[in-house]
Design goal:
There is one protein chain. This protein is of the alpha/beta class and about 425 residues long. The chain contains 13 helices and 20 strands. It folds into two domains: about 150 residues, Beta Barrel (Lyase, Ornithine Decarboxylase, Chain A, domain 1); about 250 residues, Alpha-Beta Barrel (TIM Barrel), CATH 3.20.20.10. Strands 1, 13, 14, 15, 16, 17, 18, 19 and 20 form a nine-stranded mixed β-sheet that branches.
Length: about 425
């Protein structure tokens, strides 16, 4: 518990008791200060090593407009990485210019693609057949395609978004055909995008990935005489989810990336911009779930039952993901190992399994860490349970940025 950036908040039992009393539990809590510092740290290292660059926040990680407004205030030119009409809507609510955004769907409908064009997003197509569908309706003036370089990396196999088992992108050996088709249709402005994984903490992976991307862009440039506006590496920047994981050294990562990039392109205005699409790096460690111990059970295993289950945080059940869990206030030494479970009628309803933990009692407040990304975004209504509230901490104050859902809300579209 000695190295988490929100440790000072989790130890403040008075503040978190006040929040629990005001807003009830479970709830998602976000640190405005941490969101700002994450954004500035990333921007500063990009500015240090790249002549032209652009950050598109991955909206899928957390689409709360209040949080995106913090990013926009910190980095006025930030864009969004959108993958649905709803995410474009969220971008506009946050007052981020859709013209600064990239739209990357997969198996996209004409309706979705047309909306992205209408809103001015830079369209990034997952497949050549996407272009064929689009050509029947409305072609934009600029386009990019998503490259699958044949390999990928992720914390779990389910979030490795490239390689032979991935549903995403165009294989490197086929992508020239997609650009040729677009060029023959009159498109003149191009980018290229490659999102090959998620949650990567291996620093050497990123220059390896960029080398593979540039090998493909070089072939396209030579054969089709295309000059790319940008080359996007997608996301992939990981965060530690346990105390024994080491955080990425961004300076090392982007220094090595700049060597690879400018070995192929001269460092001037004619070079493409490097685009990146981070999600969890910006928001993941800025949020946590505040939950309450509802009951303790001594069975074949020892259970700590929380009011937050897999409906509040899906990642452990979906991926087997690990999240640090702290007792609010004084954490103390472990007295045994416990499974943390919630109130959902599924045996996969586990926030953690066989976790060493100190003595706990009913009513204790518990913090489930690093849930800012893919926490609320993946929460759901299974067992007809309303979704949690979201709270923003700003210096010494706190405010509600999404009210707790009610049972009536769940049934608001059922006109009986």
């Amino acid at each position: 518990m000695n190295n988490h950036p929100l440790l000072h908040i989790v130890q403040n039992i008075k503040k978190l008791t006040e929040i629990a009393d005001n807003y009830d539990t479970p709830c998602y809590i976000y640190s405005s200060e941490r969101v700002q510092s994450n954004a500035m740290r990333l921007n500063d290292v990009l500015k240090k090593y790249f002549h032209k660059y652009h950050i598109c926040y991955a909206i899928k990680a957390n689409s709360n407009p209040h949080l995106m407004k913090i990013m926009k205030k910190t980095l006025p030119l930030i864009g969004g990485d959108c993958s649905s009409p709803g995410e474009i809507y969220a971008v506009k609510k946050a007052e981020i210019d859709p013209a600064n955004c990239i739209y990357t769907g997969n198996y996209e409908s004409i309706t979705d693609l047309s909306l992205a064009i209408e809103e001015g997003c830079y369209l990034n197509l997952d497949d050549e057949t996407s272009f064929d569908r689009l050509a029947q309706e409305n072609l934009p003036t600029r386009i990019s395609f998503r490259l699958n370089p044949g390999f990928g990396k992720g914390t779990f196999s389910q979030i490795t978004t490239a390689g032979e088992n991935a549903k995403f992108g165009i294989p490197a050996e086929k992508i020239i055909g997609a650009y040729r088709k677009a060029q023959n249709a009159g498109i003149q402005n191009f980018g290229i995008q490659c999102m090959a994984g998620s949650g990567v903490l291996t620093e050497s992976y990123f220059p390896k990935l960029l080398t593979a991307i540039l090998k493909t862009t070089n072939k396209i440039e030579e054969e089709l005489k295309i000059q790319f506006d940008f080359i996007s590496m997608g996301g992939g920047l990981g965060i530690p989810y346990s105390d024994d994981e080491k955080e990425l050294n961004l300076d090392t990562v982007f220094f090595e990336l700049s060597k690879v990039f400018y070995n192929q392109y001269k460092k001037n205005d004619s070079a493409p911009a490097l685009w990146i699409e981070p999600g969890k790096y910006l928001i993941g460690d800025a949020g946590f779930i505040l939950s309450k111990v509802i009951g303790l059970k001594d069975s074949y295993k020892n259970f700590i039952g929380l009011d937050a289950g897999m409906e509040t945080l899906m990642r452990p059940a979906l991926y087997g993901a690990t999240h640090r869990i702290y007792k609010v206030g004084f954490h103390g030494d472990p007295i045994g190992t416990f499974d943390f479970t919630g109130p959902i009628c599924e045996n996969t309803d586990r926030i953690a399994v066989n976790r060493a933990f100190p003595a706990a009692k009913e009513g204790d407040l518990i913090a489930v860490m690093d849930t800012g990304a893919y926490g609320f975004a993946m929460s759901h209504n299974f067992n007809t349970r309303p979704r949690a509230a979201e709270i923003l901490l700003e210096e010494t104050s706190h405010r509600l940025i999404r009210r707790r859902e009610t049972i009536e809300d769940i049934f608001s579209n059922c006109h009986v």
